[in-house]
Amino acid sequence: MLPCERKRYLVLWHVIQGQTPAQIAALGLMSAKSVRIQIHQYHQGGLDALQERVHPGRTSVLTPEIIADVGQQIAAGQQVWNSRSLVAYVFERYGVTVGRSAMRTQLHHAGMSWQRTRLVVAGQADPETKTAFKTDLEAVKRGL
Description:
With 144 residues, the chain is mainly α. It is built from seven helices and no strands. The chain has helices at 3-16, 21-26, 32-45, 64-76, 83-94, 100-109, 127-142. It starts with a helix and ends with a helix.
């Protein structure tokens, strides 16, 4: 059970106990107007009306095909991509305008994440060369 649903059921319990919406609002659960709305919904649809409903939100202008193409471009590695260059690529290729943060969010939902590039040393130096360098460094520090 979600916390918002629990709050609605608790409001209903207080109503059954005989409290007014103003008294329930004084408890800090929700405003008196919201209490009245919950009571009305309960009278219209019973306990099922108090359950949380799906809030789908706005659909993205980036279709799964566009996201797949962007993923292929990134995986190809022909250039270094950032959100600004990806937004420009999508606009040039598909004529779709999207913000940088929306692009990052959609890529994150598609399982892609931004990663900082870092220097990777190809191999370790020769251990003898290391010790020789350290002794030479100590000699330079001493002024020899």
